[in-house]
Amino acid sequence: MEEIIERKPFEVQVGPQHPALKEPGNFQFTVDGEIVTKASVRLGYAHRGIEKAAEERNWIQNIYLVERICGICSHIHAMTYCLAVEHLANIQAPPRAQAIRVLVAELERIHSHLLWIGVTAHEAGFDTLFMYSWRDRETIMDILENLTGNRVNYSANLLGGVKIDVDGEQKTGILKGIEILEERTKHYLNIVTTDVFFLQRTRGVGKMTQRQAEVMGAVGPTARASGVARDVRIESPYGAYDEFRPNLIIEQAGDLEARFIVRVKELFESYRLVREVLDRLPEGELSVRMPRRIKPAEFAIRVEAPRGELFYFVKSNGTDKPERVKVRTPTICNMTTVVKLVVGHQLADVPMILAGIDPCFSCNDRMVIVRDNRKIETIESRR
Amino acid sequence: MEIILDFLRLLIFPSGLFLLLAGLLYEWVDRKLLAQLQNRIGPRWFQPIADIVKLMGKEEVIPDGSNKWLFVWLPIAALAGGLTAALYVPIMGIKPAFNFTGDLIVTLYLLSLLTLCMGLAGSNTMDRYSLLGATRTFTQLFSYEAPFMLALLGPALVAGSWQIDKITAYTQNHWLIFTQPIGFIVVIIGLMGKLELPPFDAPEAETEIVAGALTEYSGRGLALFRLGKGVEMVVGLTLVAAFYLGGVSNPVLFLVKTLALLVVVAVLQAVLSRLRIDQTVGIWWRYGALLVLVQWLFMFVGQRLTL
Fold it and tell me: In chain A, which among 101-160 make CB contacts under 8 A with chain B?
């Protein structure tokens, strides 16, 4: 009798709890030896119902709620929400407030990118770079604490302005910190472009062509590393960005090395912007009066968060509460690229490719149900 | 009387209790150095001991689908291999407890026992990470083992004996690091591969496969494997120091030379990022093995010329 040996695919589950994932998410990889042949993602472990909760709170309370969507880029969420609500209420924050918002946003980008360098280096088993970049990140955390009083949720925004001002002492403190960081960042740029052992793990790994990036809707530094010229700060400036203009950082290679280079170079761009804002900080009021109720209207805004394009849709209904707040964070746009790119790579490269998009799982978890001919589709069944 | 002495050698010194403690101490030095190089504070001196004591006190969970007998005995065999190997090397600069012709080969195989046991322990469970880790452990074993052995046989060749005792007697007057530099580089990197230290930590890369082959181990089994690694580190460093760094004829020289080697190992760990398993294999077979063969070629030519 002939024995039939069936070769079952060897599936490796990564997550929801796994040392490589600092937040819960589940990935299923079918591997052939070390090579990944199939990958799928399952999200939603950290869904917190924030969009629904926003409908239960008034305009002011919501600032504090949306600020807590993301622990890394908290300011950009509050700022975007405030920009949208201000637009609905037809008021505009004073120029000094706008500039301070940009200042905090850029400081936040610096902290986010430094954090990312560390995390991705750790995924590659390069713990020295991880420790060094996180040590240097403390500089920016201290600056933020000095400026706003908080290390994580800065709570700098108000509807109609900002809460914080920058005095001369803080200005010198920031400039000093930025100077130290610029020196360090030059060193990191040197490491990520010349360290032979590290380049073995990044060069040519997770390569995404420009076409792929466009089709899969990649955003932010991930897309820019693939040659997609897309930066919301430049193509549709919001707040004070039409006055303080960043330069577009773009790389063509599309691999992990390019993503490192894009993010490190963006750090330099952020240092320049911070200096420019401090240099040309407009004088004047910090906030304007904001009505309690807002007439029915709706507004969609997109901004450039550290991880990429962040989208907010806010709808008012004449009361002091929003009718709907819709948030789309950059991670969800980039997540498809991970599932696509890991196929054909080694299992060892997977954590790096995943970390390469700078994922934030609790930001991206959304419940989307599209009812179509009684067939219920969620983001999950559409993957 | 002789029997009592033998038992003392087995249980107290040079093998046994002394070596276990020495292994933990060396582990601490390694961790502390690495931490300092990475701008961290690092553990206090008793941390490795505290880890072992804590692990010993924990419940050992034997997962379903694994052979219980193997699961329990593999860690013991691994530690026993390391401890036995220590009997043939000059620990603390004192003459090896036992010796016979060809004990170098036996020692090298005893040192491989730990890796073998870890691989088997990984294959023994149903866990995906363990299986992948075991595959990687074996792959790595097959890649560094041959160059590592060839590099350690270099000193044997010039000493004209395969007995560790006689080789060390020769190397005490000859710093082979200068006459066989390639062999030294290969052997020190081979030792890092053996101990699965970064950059050769792909078999236990936590961001990829959690703890590799030992993922399912907890409590006593894990503690024994860790003790085994500490022991192997001491024995390995002793061998390298004795063969390449002009011998270890007294305890002071022993400590100075092995700790100096440990500093080199720690620096290498700090400055290099992890290699993928295919890159590890590539490095060893493309460069490691070839370099050692070149070294051997030089040695043969040199011997012919001097004769």
Answer: 121-129, 131-132, 135
- Segment holding A313, helix H or strand E: strand A308-316
Report CB contact under 8 Å: A127, B208.
no
* Mean pLDDT, range B81-103, rounded to an integer: 82
Angle at A343 between CA A369 and CA B200, to 5 degrees: 125
B276 contacts A124? CB cut-off 8 A: no
The per-residue b/e assignment along A149-164, b for 16 or more CB within 10 angstroms, e otherwise, is eeebbbbbbbbbbbeb
**Given this model, what pLDDT does residue A84 score?**
92
Percent of chain A, pLDDT > 70? 93
Q: CB distance B207–A126 less than 8 Å?
A: no
Interface contact B276-A19, CB threshold 8 A? no
Could you tell me the strand order of the sheet in which A35-42 lies?
Answer: A10-14, A26-32, A35-42
Is any Cβ of chain B less than 8 angstroms from the Cβ of A254? no
**Rounded average pLDDT over B1-14:** 77
User: What is the total count of domains within chain B?
Assistant: 1
Give contacts of A19 with chain B, Cβ < 8 Å: 206-207, 210
Region A179-193: mean pLDDT is 90
Look at residue A270 in the predicted model and tell me its pLDDT.
Answer: 92
Q: Are A352 and A117 in contact (CB under 8 A)?
A: no
A383 pLDDT higher than 50: no
SS3 B114: helix
- For chain A, the structural domain boundaries read 50-326
Q: What is the pTM of this model?
A: 0.86
Percent of chain A predicted with pLDDT > 90 = 21
Of the pLDDT bands very low, low, confident and very high (cuts 50, 70, 90), residue A376 is low
φ, ψ (nearest 5 deg) of residue A34: -105, -10
Which pLDDT score, from 0 to 100, does residue A271 have?
Answer: 92
Q: Which pLDDT does position A19 carry in this prediction? A: 77
Task: Give the pLDDT band of residue A373 (cuts 50, 70, 90).
Answer: low
Which of these, B15, B59, B19, B73, lies nearest to B225 by C-alpha position?
A: B73
User: Tokens 């890649």 identify what position?
Assistant: B143
Burial B265-301 (b: 16+ CB within 10 A, else e): bbebbbebbbbbbbbbbebbeeebbebbeebbeebee
Domain that holds residue B59: 2-306
Correct CATH for A50-326 of 1.10.645.10, 3.90.180.10, 3.40.30.10, 1.10.287.470: 1.10.645.10
> Coil, strand, or helix at residue B180?
coil
Residue of B38, B129, B135 lying closest to A128 (CB–CB): B38
Q: Which of A198, A347, A350, A352 is the best mutation test for B, with the most CBs of B within 10 A?
A: A347
What is the ipTM, given to two decimal places? 0.82
Mean pLDDT to the nearest integer, B260-279:
87
